[in-house]
Amino acid sequence: MTLLAVTGASGKTGWRVVQEALHRGYQVRAIVRPQSTIPAGLEGAEICRLDLGTAEALHAALAGCDRLVIATGARPSIDLFGPMKVDAFGVRDQLRACQAVGLGRVVLVSSLCAGRWKHPLNLFGLILVWKRLGEQWLQQSDLKVTVVRPGGLSENEAGLEEQGIRFSGADQQESNSIPRRLVARVCLDALESPAAIGQIIEITSSASQPASSLSDWLAGQAPA
Fold it and tell me: What's the pTM?
């Protein structure tokens, strides 16, 4: 059985990734901060509490895992260095840990507009700039990486099946939102698709968007 690690597993997107993975039959190691409150619904996952900045503990947590979803992200705070520490250097620490333990397949949850300087979100510690740096470090590694860039994240889970997902490559979308639950599903779809390796995938959704799957979109990207 595949052992999937999820970092940021107590966050609003991370715990949905864990839930969806358990539903698909994965064995899941949910990695959370020492002080995190564990949300309901993670029964069946192995909970691992650690400081991601502690290399030895992170190596131990990832040892034996086959795949990793990085769902960590800086939270709003007065610490303007938070995005740098979490979205750039925190991703680099996880990259190094993967290399140390031989974990080769990674999906990173990033953000639409990653890398853009002129954006309102950058008022929060240049978050989009640091997210792009984290993406680049992963892309330049020897790991099999997929970057998922969701639009504005919604907590609403009503009518999920009526939502069509718009998939695109890097820097094709600028706005619109998507429920976190759908982001979690796309992350797992990406893990399960060899064609997603090396891709930056931007996703938003709406009820007016025609239904499509990641595999369909990836098939359309293949060269003739």
Answer: 0.95
